[in-house]
Amino acid sequence: MARVVFIHPPRLTRWGRDVAFKERLPHIGLAYVAAAARQAGHEILGIDAAATGEQIPDVVARARAFAPDFLAITANTYQIVEAALTAGALHDALPGKPVVLGGYHVTPIAEETLRQFPSFDAAIVGEGEDALVELIEAWPIRGTAPPPA
Ligand code: B12
């Protein structure tokens, strides 16, 4: 069993402006992936910072308090910089904990995205329910040996 935090990144670029209803809607795709992880027996925490208005320090504090093994972030293209900054802050606060990216930005350009934003350790393309569970279970967490090549 792993402890996994699911994050919809904060909005950084529109501070002080009214937030439209669209940005307040919870992220359904991330919820699907989180539900699959929970169904597979993992402990989950969801942080929809885009919907709640939380900022990177809030996300980091909540993630740390949960003592995660694994961090999962979603991003559309207009959120990729926010997601990368959040991943970097999580790495600083939780050294050695893997951060995996999913969603619409990374799906068509995974290799380019991972090269451009080294704060992501891995990416999942397309629908993430099964793939994320497989990745969590294969990743060498808590000192377990890596899977055979
Ligand atoms: C529904 C929808 C909306 C709803 C969102 C409701 C909600 N809060 O969830 C509303 C109407 C609000 C909306 C608004 C916008 N949308 Co919209 N929307 C869609 C749509 C039609 C479906 C998304 C969806 O819910 N899919 C179903 C869920 C279950 O799947 P999913 O989100 O894809 O998630 C799966 C995978 O992506 C993956 N995954 C996702 N995240 C993660 C994370 C991890 C860690 C992992 C492992 C996997 C993973 O696994 C998930 C489960 O299988 C898509 C187009 C499409 N047909 O897919 C566009 C789409 C996502 N929207 C888009 C855009 C641009 C917008 C707007 C900016 C439009 C605008 N100009 O206002 C706004 C932004 C709103 C905001 N600021 O947040 C673009 C994004 C393109 C991009 N590259 O970023 C899309 C792809 C449409 C397009 N072709 O251009 N949208």
What does this protein look like?
The protein has 7 helices and 5 strands; from the N terminus they run βααβααβαβαβα. It has a single domain (6-12, 21-28, 41-138), classed as Cobalamin-binding domain (Rossmann fold, 3-Layer(aba) Sandwich), CATH 3.40.50. Helix 6 links the parallel strand 4 and strand 5 (122-123). Helix 2 packs across helix 7 and helix 4 crosses helix 5. The chain is an alpha/beta fold and 149 residues long. The model is unreliable at 142-147 (pLDDT under 50). It has a 5-stranded parallel beta sheet, with helices on both faces. It is globular. The longest helix is centred in the middle third of the chain and has 14 residues, at 80-93. Cobalamin is lined by residues 22-23, 25-30, 32-33, 72-74, 76-78, 100, 102-105, 124, 127-129, 132.
- Classify the secondary structure makeup into a structural class: alpha/beta
**Average pLDDT score:** 90
- CATH level 4 superfamily: Cobalamin-binding domain
Bound small molecules, by name, code or SMILES, are: cobalamin
Largest sheet entry = 5 strands, parallel
The number of domains = 1
Strands of the widest sheet, in order across it, are: 2-1-3-4-5
CA distance, first residue to last residue = 22 Å
Number of helices: 7
Q: Give me the strand/helix succession.
A: EHHEHHEHEHEH
Task: Please report which band the strand proportion falls in: under 5%, 5-15%, 15-25%, 25-35%, 35-45% or over 45%.
Answer: 15-25%
What is the general shape?
A: globular
CATH architectural grouping: 3-Layer(aba) Sandwich
Would you tell me which CATH topology applies?
A: Rossmann fold
Give Rg in angstroms.
14 Å
The number of distinct β-strands equals 5
- Proportion of helical residues: 40-55%
Could you name the ranges where pLDDT drops below 50 across 5 or more consecutive residues?
142-147
| CATH top level label | Alpha Beta
